[in-house]
Amino acid sequence: MAFLSDTLARVKPSPTIMMTNKTLELKAAGRDVIGLSAGEPDFDTPDNIKEAAVAAIAAGKTKYTSVDGIPELKRAVCAKLKRDNGLDYEPAQVSIGTGGKQVLYNALMATLNPGDEVIIPAPYWVSYPDMVLLAGGEPVIIEGPLETGFKITPEALEEAITPRTKWLIFNSPSNPTGAGYSWDELKALTEVLMRHPQVHILSDDMYEHLVYDDFTFCTVAEVEPGLYDRTLTVNGVSKAYAMTGWRIGYAAGPVELIGAMRKIQSQSTSNPCTISQWAALEALEGTQDFIAPNNRLFKRRRDIVVEMLNAIPGITCPKPDGAFYVYPSIAGLIGKTSKGGTLIDSDEAFATALLEENDVAAVFGAAFGLSPNFRISYATSEENLIEACTRIQAFCDGLT
């Protein structure tokens, strides 16, 4: 009898976390590594949110709460969805989890049976396929290549749907590409989904407030009200509010699904951190004035990185609509050899050699389901980004 579960053989550790850990190890050994692998804003959590957490502690709000969130936070989520997205939900339709990742995992665990298919556009967040596999489902990958702006087409979606399709996981703006779907582009996809009533939509809106230029965010149930009863709208406070470590995510959807997710959570983690819930309440209800200035800084950083990377022969870097990532192609570098003797036969080889030889940590594109690319996060200082891009240029200049 094997000690470890057979299910573990279906999944792999997160490549982004592995790269972040490798960066920390090298820094601890004295290397001057610039880490661009973590999807985490470098801004501090706003003071009003921190003060709300301190006030909660002082008031003794440190006990267990309802399994999937305090009523006050659920009502705030409903108000946020109405204010920002024009969506009407009641607190019974809302689940609060320990980060968006738990909310997604709960939904998949609560709904998937062996053989159920989940459509995942690539490039994708690294955890989507493995969560599907852990829940017993089968990921079905649709590629959104560079030529289509890293976005899937209605035709590709139609072709991927089968009688066994249970979910489409949809993320806009995207991690890892920052690509966002316009209203018309999303409407074209929802028209396909309306023809397939067995398909539910898991809309990951985590980067909703991190958008630039003239891009306007929209979400699935907002664009097509006919999909309201089949959509789980997921969001959280990690990115826009610089609260990654507070670990609060939320979702709104059908009552039956929310109840099933509550059952999963009741037998795993129970309630999210009480103090974090009160902090998240202030995030949603308090001032939003810091979001626009933060976005201006992100946009400036994005523009610096895109310009510097596009100046490197062999690299093509599209300008993203949102989030804080770029996903450049290295198609023009495949087949070359680094100064250290590494054959660049894949994006993984590129990222590994870049880290080992020039001390820049990025994540290889194969981890996100589309190669040959790499992802870097520009959620760090301009000084770090300029130095990192200079090192990338030096690395590429040394390829033969």
TrEMBL record:
Reaction catalysis annotation: L-aspartate + 2-oxoglutarate = oxaloacetate + L-glutamate
Keywords assigned by UniProt, alphabetized: Aminotransferase, Pyridoxal phosphate, Transferase
Stated family: Belongs to the class-I pyridoxal-phosphate-dependent aminotransferase family.
Ranges in coiled-coil conformation: none
Entry's transmembrane regions: none
Organism: Pseudooceanicola marinus
Protein name as it appears in the record: Aminotransferase
Subunit structure: Homodimer.
GO BP: amino acid metabolic process
MF annotations from Gene Ontology: L-aspartate:2-oxoglutarate aminotransferase activity; pyridoxal phosphate binding
Listed cofactors: pyridoxal 5'-phosphate
Cited CDD domains: AAT_like (cd00609)
E.C. number(s) listed in UniProt: 2.6.1.-
PROSITE patterns assigned to the protein according to its UniProt record, in alphabetical order: AA_TRANSFER_CLASS_1
Occurrences of domain Aminotransferase class I/classII large (ranges): 32-392
